[in-house]
Amino acid sequence: MLVVEDDPTIGHGLRTALQAQGYAVTWCEKGADALVAAGHTPFDLALLDLGLPDADGLDVCRRLRRSHPALTIVMLTARTEEADIVAGLDQGADDYLTKPFRLAELLARVRAHLRRPRADPPVQEAPTGPLEVGGLRIDQGARRVWSGGREVELRAKEFDLLVLLAIEAGQALTRDLIMRTVWDENYVGSTKTLDMHILALRRKLGDAVTITTLRAVGYRLEEP
Protein backbone atom coordinates (compact mmCIF):
# COMPACT_ATOMS: atom_id res chain seq x y z
CA MET A 1 0.00 0.00 0.00
CA LEU A 2 1.21 3.49 -0.87
CA VAL A 3 0.68 6.37 1.56
CA VAL A 4 1.41 9.85 0.21
CA GLU A 5 1.25 12.33 3.08
CA ASP A 6 3.58 15.23 3.84
CA ASP A 7 2.50 15.71 7.47
CA PRO A 8 4.91 13.52 9.50
CA THR A 9 2.43 12.99 12.32
CA ILE A 10 -0.35 11.80 10.01
CA GLY A 11 1.98 9.82 7.77
CA HIS A 12 3.65 7.99 10.64
CA GLY A 13 0.27 7.32 12.26
CA LEU A 14 -1.21 5.91 9.06
CA ARG A 15 1.80 3.70 8.42
CA THR A 16 1.74 2.34 11.98
CA ALA A 17 -2.02 1.68 11.93
CA LEU A 18 -1.97 0.01 8.52
CA GLN A 19 1.03 -2.15 9.35
CA ALA A 20 -0.76 -3.24 12.51
CA GLN A 21 -3.55 -4.49 10.22
CA GLY A 22 -1.05 -6.57 8.28
CA TYR A 23 -0.54 -4.30 5.25
CA ALA A 24 2.86 -3.66 3.69
CA VAL A 25 3.18 0.12 3.56
CA THR A 26 5.41 2.53 1.66
CA TRP A 27 5.14 6.09 2.95
CA CYS A 28 6.19 9.03 0.78
CA GLU A 29 6.09 12.69 1.79
CA LYS A 30 6.43 14.07 -1.75
CA GLY A 31 4.50 13.49 -4.94
CA ALA A 32 7.64 12.87 -6.99
CA ASP A 33 8.77 10.14 -4.59
CA ALA A 34 5.33 8.54 -4.75
CA LEU A 35 5.42 8.38 -8.55
CA VAL A 36 8.85 6.77 -8.44
CA ALA A 37 7.73 4.25 -5.81
CA ALA A 38 4.62 3.37 -7.83
CA GLY A 39 6.85 2.74 -10.84
CA HIS A 40 8.77 0.07 -8.93
CA THR A 41 6.09 -1.57 -6.76
CA PRO A 42 2.68 -2.93 -7.85
CA PHE A 43 0.55 -1.32 -5.12
CA ASP A 44 -3.09 -2.31 -4.69
CA LEU A 45 -4.18 0.94 -3.04
CA ALA A 46 -2.89 4.48 -2.56
CA LEU A 47 -3.90 6.95 0.14
CA LEU A 48 -3.10 10.28 -1.49
CA ASP A 49 -3.00 13.63 0.30
CA LEU A 50 -3.85 16.39 -2.18
CA GLY A 51 -1.87 19.05 -0.32
CA LEU A 52 1.71 18.10 -1.21
CA PRO A 53 4.76 20.37 -0.90
CA ASP A 54 6.31 19.64 -4.30
CA ALA A 55 3.39 18.89 -6.62
CA ASP A 56 -0.31 19.37 -7.22
CA GLY A 57 -2.00 16.36 -5.66
CA LEU A 58 -4.56 16.30 -8.47
CA ASP A 59 -1.76 16.00 -11.01
CA VAL A 60 -0.20 13.16 -9.00
CA CYS A 61 -3.60 11.45 -8.94
CA ARG A 62 -3.98 11.83 -12.70
CA ARG A 63 -0.50 10.45 -13.39
CA LEU A 64 -1.02 7.50 -11.04
CA ARG A 65 -4.32 6.66 -12.71
CA ARG A 66 -2.84 6.92 -16.20
CA SER A 67 0.13 4.68 -15.44
CA HIS A 68 -1.66 2.27 -13.06
CA PRO A 69 -5.29 1.80 -14.19
CA ALA A 70 -6.00 -0.95 -11.64
CA LEU A 71 -4.74 1.04 -8.62
CA THR A 72 -7.38 2.09 -6.10
CA ILE A 73 -6.82 5.74 -5.17
CA VAL A 74 -8.38 7.25 -2.04
CA MET A 75 -7.90 11.00 -1.68
CA LEU A 76 -7.13 12.50 1.72
CA THR A 77 -7.98 16.16 1.55
CA ALA A 78 -8.56 19.20 3.69
CA ARG A 79 -10.44 20.74 0.76
CA THR A 80 -14.17 20.60 1.42
CA GLU A 81 -15.49 22.44 -1.63
CA GLU A 82 -17.54 20.16 -3.88
CA ALA A 83 -15.71 21.41 -6.98
CA ASP A 84 -12.35 20.34 -5.53
CA ILE A 85 -13.60 16.88 -4.63
CA VAL A 86 -15.28 16.38 -8.01
CA ALA A 87 -12.03 17.47 -9.67
CA GLY A 88 -10.19 14.75 -7.75
CA LEU A 89 -12.70 12.12 -8.80
CA ASP A 90 -12.41 13.31 -12.40
CA GLN A 91 -8.64 12.90 -12.23
CA GLY A 92 -9.06 9.23 -11.33
CA ALA A 93 -9.64 8.93 -7.58
CA ASP A 94 -12.03 6.18 -6.48
CA ASP A 95 -12.97 7.59 -3.09
CA TYR A 96 -12.12 10.39 -0.69
CA LEU A 97 -11.94 11.30 2.98
CA THR A 98 -11.87 14.86 4.27
CA LYS A 99 -9.52 15.82 7.08
CA PRO A 100 -9.81 15.41 9.96
CA PHE A 101 -10.98 11.83 9.45
CA ARG A 102 -11.58 8.97 11.84
CA LEU A 103 -8.98 6.23 11.64
CA ALA A 104 -11.63 3.53 12.08
CA GLU A 105 -13.53 4.80 9.03
CA LEU A 106 -10.36 4.98 6.94
CA LEU A 107 -9.46 1.40 7.81
CA ALA A 108 -13.01 0.28 6.97
CA ARG A 109 -12.80 2.00 3.59
CA VAL A 110 -9.45 0.35 2.89
CA ARG A 111 -10.84 -3.10 3.74
CA ALA A 112 -13.91 -2.52 1.56
CA HIS A 113 -11.87 -1.43 -1.45
CA LEU A 114 -9.38 -4.26 -1.14
CA ARG A 115 -12.17 -6.84 -0.99
CA ARG A 116 -13.19 -5.87 -4.49
CA PRO A 117 -11.32 -7.33 -7.47
CA ARG A 118 -9.44 -4.69 -9.44
CA ALA A 119 -9.45 -6.51 -12.74
CA ASP A 120 -10.99 -5.12 -15.90
CA PRO A 121 -14.72 -5.75 -16.40
CA PRO A 122 -15.22 -9.52 -16.80
CA VAL A 123 -15.17 -10.41 -20.47
CA GLN A 124 -16.65 -13.85 -19.90
CA GLU A 125 -20.06 -12.37 -19.20
CA ALA A 126 -22.26 -11.87 -22.24
CA PRO A 127 -22.76 -8.13 -22.83
CA THR A 128 -26.25 -6.95 -22.07
CA GLY A 129 -28.17 -4.92 -24.60
CA PRO A 130 -27.97 -1.17 -25.08
CA LEU A 131 -29.98 1.17 -22.90
CA GLU A 132 -31.74 4.27 -24.15
CA VAL A 133 -33.08 6.69 -21.56
CA GLY A 134 -34.03 10.25 -22.45
CA GLY A 135 -31.20 11.65 -24.52
CA LEU A 136 -28.78 8.95 -23.41
CA ARG A 137 -27.61 5.84 -25.21
CA ILE A 138 -25.59 3.39 -23.12
CA ASP A 139 -23.65 0.48 -24.61
CA GLN A 140 -23.09 -1.79 -21.62
CA GLY A 141 -20.87 -4.25 -23.48
CA ALA A 142 -18.47 -1.57 -24.72
CA ARG A 143 -18.96 0.60 -21.60
CA ARG A 144 -19.63 3.69 -23.73
CA VAL A 145 -22.18 6.46 -23.27
CA TRP A 146 -23.59 9.04 -25.68
CA SER A 147 -25.52 12.12 -24.57
CA GLY A 148 -27.45 13.80 -27.38
CA GLY A 149 -25.21 12.09 -29.93
CA ARG A 150 -22.01 13.20 -28.17
CA GLU A 151 -19.88 10.52 -26.55
CA VAL A 152 -19.24 11.16 -22.88
CA GLU A 153 -16.18 9.82 -21.10
CA LEU A 154 -17.10 8.31 -17.74
CA ARG A 155 -14.93 6.75 -15.07
CA ALA A 156 -15.64 3.15 -14.05
CA LYS A 157 -17.76 3.93 -11.01
CA GLU A 158 -19.61 6.71 -12.83
CA PHE A 159 -20.53 4.27 -15.60
CA ASP A 160 -21.69 1.57 -13.16
CA LEU A 161 -23.75 4.13 -11.25
CA LEU A 162 -25.37 5.45 -14.42
CA VAL A 163 -26.26 1.95 -15.62
CA LEU A 164 -27.97 1.16 -12.31
CA LEU A 165 -29.93 4.42 -12.41
CA ALA A 166 -30.86 3.90 -16.07
CA ILE A 167 -32.03 0.31 -15.58
CA GLU A 168 -34.24 1.51 -12.75
CA ALA A 169 -35.27 4.77 -14.46
CA GLY A 170 -38.26 6.32 -12.72
CA GLN A 171 -37.69 4.30 -9.56
CA ALA A 172 -36.39 5.62 -6.25
CA LEU A 173 -33.10 4.00 -5.30
CA THR A 174 -31.90 4.23 -1.72
CA ARG A 175 -28.36 5.23 -0.85
CA ASP A 176 -27.77 1.86 0.79
CA LEU A 177 -28.90 -0.04 -2.30
CA ILE A 178 -26.68 2.06 -4.57
CA MET A 179 -23.64 1.70 -2.32
CA ARG A 180 -24.09 -2.06 -2.03
CA THR A 181 -24.54 -2.47 -5.78
CA VAL A 182 -21.97 -0.07 -7.20
CA TRP A 183 -19.34 -0.01 -4.47
CA ASP A 184 -19.39 -2.97 -2.09
CA GLU A 185 -22.04 -5.08 -0.39
CA ASN A 186 -20.22 -4.53 2.92
CA TYR A 187 -19.44 -0.84 2.34
CA VAL A 188 -18.86 1.05 5.58
CA GLY A 189 -18.65 4.80 5.98
CA SER A 190 -19.98 8.03 4.55
CA THR A 191 -22.00 8.03 1.32
CA LYS A 192 -20.61 11.44 0.33
CA THR A 193 -18.60 9.66 -2.34
CA LEU A 194 -21.93 8.80 -3.98
CA ASP A 195 -22.98 12.46 -3.89
CA MET A 196 -19.77 13.51 -5.63
CA HIS A 197 -20.26 10.90 -8.35
CA ILE A 198 -23.83 12.12 -8.88
CA LEU A 199 -22.53 15.69 -9.25
CA ALA A 200 -20.00 14.49 -11.81
CA LEU A 201 -22.69 12.64 -13.79
CA ARG A 202 -24.97 15.68 -13.81
CA ARG A 203 -22.16 17.86 -15.10
CA LYS A 204 -21.09 15.40 -17.81
CA LEU A 205 -24.55 14.35 -19.02
CA GLY A 206 -26.09 17.81 -19.20
CA ASP A 207 -29.81 17.91 -19.95
CA ALA A 208 -30.05 14.42 -21.45
CA VAL A 209 -31.59 13.11 -18.22
CA THR A 210 -32.43 14.43 -14.77
CA ILE A 211 -31.06 12.79 -11.62
CA THR A 212 -33.35 13.84 -8.80
CA THR A 213 -32.18 13.95 -5.20
CA LEU A 214 -34.68 12.33 -2.83
CA ARG A 215 -33.99 13.81 0.57
CA ALA A 216 -33.25 11.18 3.23
CA VAL A 217 -33.78 8.44 0.63
CA GLY A 218 -31.44 8.49 -2.36
CA TYR A 219 -31.75 9.26 -6.07
CA ARG A 220 -34.04 8.73 -9.05
CA LEU A 221 -33.16 9.07 -12.75
CA GLU A 222 -35.90 10.65 -14.81
CA GLU A 223 -36.33 11.19 -18.52
CA PRO A 224 -36.89 14.81 -19.59
What would your notes on this structure say?
The protein has 224 residues and is of the alpha/beta class. The chain folds into two domains: 2-115, Response regulator (Rossmann fold, 3-Layer(aba) Sandwich), CATH 3.40.50.2300; 131-222, Arc Repressor Mutant, subunit A (Orthogonal Bundle). 41% of the residues lie in helices and 21% in strands. The chain has helices at residues 8-20, 31-40, 57-67, 82-90, 103-115, 156-167, 175-183, 192-205; strands at 2-4, 26-28, 45-49, 72-77, 95-98, 131-133, 136-139, 144-147, 150-152, 173-174, 210-214, 218-222. Helix 4 (82-90) packs across helix 8 (192-205). The radius of gyration is 18 Å and the shape is elongated.
Quick tags:
2 domains; Rossmann fold; alpha/beta; five-stranded parallel beta sheet; Arc Repressor Mutant, subunit A; 41% helix; four-stranded antiparallel beta sheet; 224 residues
Q: What is the number of helical segments per DSSP (H or I, 4+ residues)? A: 8
Average of the residue pLDDT scores? 85
Q: What's the CATH architecture name of the largest domain?
A: 3-Layer(aba) Sandwich
Helix content: 40-55%
CATH topology of the largest domain: Rossmann fold
Structure in a nutshell:
With 224 residues, the chain is α/β, with parallel strands linked by helices.
